[in-house]
Write a structure and sequence with these properties.
Radius of gyration: 29 Å
Shape: elongated
CATH architecture of the largest domain: 3-Layer(aba) Sandwich
CATH class of the largest domain: Alpha Beta
Strand order of the largest sheet: 2-1-3-4-5
Order of helices and strands: HHEHEHEHHEHEHHHHEHEEHHEHEE
Structural class: alpha/beta
Number of helices: 15
CATH topology of the largest domain: Rossmann fold
Helix content: 40-55%
Number of strands: 11
Number of domains: 2
Largest sheet: 5 strands, parallel
Length: 315
């Protein structure tokens, strides 16, 4: 069998396992979401080996989407790190077999603390499954490993279960892009979500007068470098002329001689406030199929121009 065929089979096995796991979601999943949502403490995730690695990712996803969370190694917890737990926490314990000794031996201490527990197991009737408050079934028919030994399909389903919990909690918390940016301020995504129009708008405006000729308008657009000219009269904005407006003028008139800016401008251009979020302005441009927006200040006075390609300046 070729490597490509093997790879496709792995995808198929895992896809089937994910579909099967989705059909098993029931009221227990809702209870787990509500337990995590209502706790005044943190969600602590623990597991050994590959399960621990998956647990690290689940905790990281929860923490970055509005649910205070961290992961802890079960062996280290048993040797002193139990002090990291509080009585108001919820603990997710991951063990596919449900018989991992390092995970199971945390149960008596967690019960003593009064901590609520959720098991992610492949066998709900296992020791771990029987001794946790809630059980999420991450069982799979077989691993993608040809020997049915290496955690492959089971870790994928466990990871998906963690993502499902995180997304459900995001919906319950009404967690929006701006909230997400608060937890990701250092990356380009965070910068993009936190940027306001005034932070990237162009303030050197290509201005022309209503009576300007087409040659003068074209010169203004060319020198401005923004693909537009703003028509202003006595300090008040009258309209905007884009490359598209010029093309339409050429199409609709046998000659542009005698035409002035006021004859070809769009008198009701789209605009945004300089305090609007850049992402909202970008969405407006994409929806309206335009590449520029005029920007106004709190008094409604023209203060800048925003270009769709300005998104590239946020990377």
């Amino acid at each position: 069998m070729s490597s490509v065929s093997i790879g496709k089979e792995v995808f198929q096995v895992q896809a089937q396992a994910l579909e099967a796991a989705a059909t098993r979601l029931n009221g227990t999943f809702t209870q787990a979401v509500n337990m995590m949502l209502e706790t005044p403490g943190r969600v602590v995730v623990t597991g050994m080996g590959k399960s621990g690695i998956i647990g690290n990712k689940i905790a990281a996803t929860l923490a970055s989407t509005g649910t205070p969370s961290f992961s802890v190694h079960p062996a280290e917890a048993y040797h002193g790190d139990l002090g990291m737990f509080t009585t108001t926490d919820v603990v997710i314990l991951i063990s596919y077999s449900g018989e991992t000794d390092e995970v199971i031996r945390l149960i008596p201490s967690l019960r003593h603390f009064g901590v609520k527990t959720i098991a992610m197991v492949g066998n709900p009737d296992s020791t771990l499954g029987r001794h946790c408050d809630l059980v999420l079934d991450v069982s799979v028919e077989r691993e993608a490993c040809p020997n049915n030994l290496a955690p492959t399909t089971s870790t994928t389903v466990t990871l998906a279960m963690g993502d499902a919990l995180a997304v459900a909690l995001m919906e319950k918390r009404d967690f929006n892009p701006q909230d997400f940016a608060v937890f990701h301020p250092g990356g380009s995504l965070g910068k993009r979500l936190l940027t306001r129009v005034k932070d990237v708008m162009h303030t050197e405006l290509p201005i022309c007068a209503p009576q300007d000729s087409m040659k003068e308008v074209i010169m203004t657009i060319t020198q401005g470098g923004l693909g537009i000219a703003v028509v202003v009269s006595n300090g008040a904005m009258q309209g905007v002329i884009t490359d598209g407006d010029l093309r339409r003028a050429l199409f609709n008139h046998d000659s542009i001689d005698g035409l002035t800016a006021v004859n070809v401008m769009t008198s009701t251009p789209l605009s945004v406030s300089e305090t609007d979020m850049f992402t909202d302005a970008e969405t407006m441009m994409l929806k309206a199929e335009v590449t520029s927006l005029l920007v106004v200040d709190a008094s409604g006075v023209l203060s800048g121009v925003l270009k769709l390609q300005d998104a590239g300046r946020l990377g």
